[in-house]
């Protein structure tokens, strides 16, 4: 099927899908796709999920090769957790503005200002930043990770300002310092845009990713106007399945709408901002997945000294919070 449209796959697409399936068997490969990937990429994947779920799938898999259909830091994470597997990314240029918002040098300088602090890095960071951190977290378990830390120790949380501010509010922790980085896609989902969409759809529920520029305003909306939930992308999928509401305004990258609509045919999902498209996630195509499997490229391998230091914070991330939680 051409899954963006629901129409049968074109001859070219069907041929690519058949080639990918064959190569996957030959290479003993597992294809993992993030919830923001293009529809056909999500549909060819063996598993789709949020950043935490992808890390867990990678860790549990017995496949020899992992094809990470996502952005570079996700492939690095898989490589750190699974050093014995070959981790491939179909396009190594698939980066992340948020991961670029904090360099290892910047983190070192920040740590020097707060020598007693515990460092919590969002998974959207380079392997080198993870190697300087005590804990990693994703949007699905950021609150749980911070709650696991001694309340008397200061916490340095980076690089996402909106997520960090949300975690500070929910935990009520006065000693949490937040780095001023942002994802350009989520930061552009402004409060005004979200409120306009909510006003156009009375009776809808509002699903907000905590990286969004509208998170604070969403939580301040009166419940009689809209019920707002702050969730990771897998959290939104679970919530939408279980809620009795039939209309949802969705504040996150548009790729998530593919699964939301496919899994909930009787419900309507409306973007809070039509322009919320991550150009990096859309760089992965069926053709590039076929090429990755055929030519065994592009392998992502984290240098051993960095890998060894980044492993503990990532293992802590994967271990904290049950996978079926609704909200963060
Ligand atoms: P999650 O899918 O983990 O919520 O992450 C969102 C994101 O922006 C990944 O880059
Ligand atoms: Fe990075 Fe934002 Fe794209 Fe996620 S949506 S990969 S945080 S740029």
From TrEMBL:
Its cofactor is [4Fe-4S] cluster. Its EC number is 2.5.1.72. It catalyses: iminosuccinate + dihydroxyacetone phosphate = quinolinate + phosphate + 2 H2O + H(+). It holds the Pfam family NadA. Pathway: Cofactor biosynthesis; NAD(+) biosynthesis; quinolinate from iminoaspartate: step 1/1. It comes from the Bacteria. Binds 1 [4Fe-4S] cluster per subunit. It is found in: Cytoplasm. One of its GO terms (molecular function) is metal ion binding. Keywords: 4Fe-4S, Cytoplasm, Iron, Iron-sulfur, Metal-binding, Pyridine nucleotide biosynthesis, Transferase. Iminosuccinate binds at residues 34, 51, 122-124, 139, 209-211, 233. One of its GO terms (cellular component) is cytoplasm. One of its GO terms (biological process) is 'de novo' NAD+ biosynthetic process from L-aspartate. [4Fe-4S] cluster binds at residues 96, 183, 278. NCBIfam families: nadA (TIGR00550), PRK09375.1-2 (NF006878), PRK09375.1-4 (NF006879). Belongs to the quinolinate synthase family. Type 2 subfamily. HAMAP family: NadA_type2. Catalyzes the condensation of iminoaspartate with dihydroxyacetone phosphate to form quinolinate. This is Quinolinate synthase. The lineage of its organism: Bacteria, Bacillati, Bacillota, Clostridia, Eubacteriales.
